[in-house]
Automatic annotation (TrEMBL):
Source superkingdom: Bacteria
UniProt xrefs under Pfam families: DUF4331 (PF14224)
Name the record gives this protein: DUF4331 domain-containing protein
Entry-linked InterPro entries: DUF4331
Length: 336
């Protein structure tokens, strides 16, 4: 549940899986370390994305927590099992707009729902969108055992007794997801020396734009939100995160790990949990919390963070079908 669920009611935004952002990745291209890969996954059903939504990857490259670069992805309505997508690239002030702005770098390119990806090239950009094997791995029943979250309750103190909560079963072993992947020259990102990346899903609704989900650090939204605050959190922007959400995060960490306020703030600062943006210095090897690669065990990392190192590891292994070539996530599993 890196962010496969929004809030603790375990339901997607507006009850629509197409609007649910799952995972965000950033890493150097294995074959060319001068290029960066950004991947935003959505929709655990792995079918067509919402034609009235704007899916976005935004980048801050100067540390002011405002967007300097933004990729917007606009999908057509699906017809006969096919869908296309436009990709807009905005820079500077245009990147702050929640609407698609700037240059259209891909125009109505085909999404893939079959066994292989449709890979598109435009200038220095490589792009693919469609159904892929989900690289995220976790023991969902074990997490429910650990936190006793049946009935949609919020996370509180973990049940760290003599017996392990883990079942040893990867709940996502044969799962698919809708993946949006773009690779580009790292120099275009203007990292000085690092960048911060976040994803957003906004829905055109009632004549306006409803910001229904966001993605940054893995599993932050799932674990730190409450059912009362998740809508506000998903509609908010990173520049306001520290002021608005630090107290809530500190409070939760007091329950889950016995942190004092000073200890919790220090740990949040160490990781850079707030603002909720994925931090990546491309001059250093990618491994969460410096970017994120498809084999990172982000659930064990997050649970160690929450419990001050007291939670035992789940014992799960990364998926073996991830690729070392674009689009990096494996071919989708056959439908059951």
């Amino acid at each position: 549940m890196s962010n496969h669920f929004t809030g603790l009611s375990l339901g997607p935004p507006l009850g629509d899986q197409r609007l649910d952002l799952c995972d965000l990745y950033a890493f150097q291209a294995p074959a060319d370390p001068t290029r960066t890969v950004l991947i935003l996954n959505a929709n655990p059903n792995a079918d067509a994305l919402h034609p009235d939504a704007i899916y976005r990857l935004a980048v801050d490259n100067d540390g002011d927590l405002l967007n300097d670069i933004a990729f917007s992805f606009i999908f057509s309505g699906p017809v006969d099992g096919r869908q296309t997508v436009d990709v807009h690239l905005a820079v500077g002030d245009d990147a702050e707009s929640p609407f698609p702005m700037g240059e259209k770098i891909f125009d109505a390119v085909e999404v893939s729902f079959g066994p292989t990806a449709n890979v598109h090239q435009s200038g220095g950009h490589t792009f693919a969108a469609g159904s892929r094997s989900d690289a995220f791995f976790f023991d969902f029943d074990g997490i429910k055992n650990l936190f006793d979250i049946t009935g949609g309750r919020n996370f509180t103190a973990p049940h760290l007794g003599d017996s392990s909560p883990w079942t040893g079963v990867d709940s996502n072993l044969t799962a698919n997801v809708f993946s949006i992947a773009i690779e580009l020259p790292t120099a275009e990102l203007g990292a000085n020396p690092d960048i911060r990346i976040w994803g957003r899903c906004s829905l055109r609704q009632d004549g306006g734009l409803n910001h229904v989900d966001r993605a940054g650090h893995p599993s932050v939204s799932s674990f730190f939100n409450t059912d009362d605050t998740k809508l506000e959190y998903n509609a908010s922007v990173p520049v306001n995160d520290r002021e608005r959400w630090t107290a809530q995060f500190v409070h939760l960490m007091g329950h889950t790990g016995g942190y004092t306020e000073d200890e919790a703030v220090a740990e949040i600062d160490r990781e850079g949990t707030l603002p909720d943006m994925l931090h990546f210095n491309p001059a250093k090897p990618a491994k969460y919390p410096n970017g994120r690669v498809t084999t990172d065990d982000v659930i064990d990392y997050r649970l160690a963070f929450l419990t001050k190192g007291d939670c035992p590891p789940s014992g799960l292994a990364p998926h073996t079908d991830v690729l070392d070539v674009f689009p990096y996530l494996g071919n989708p599993h056959p439908a059951n």
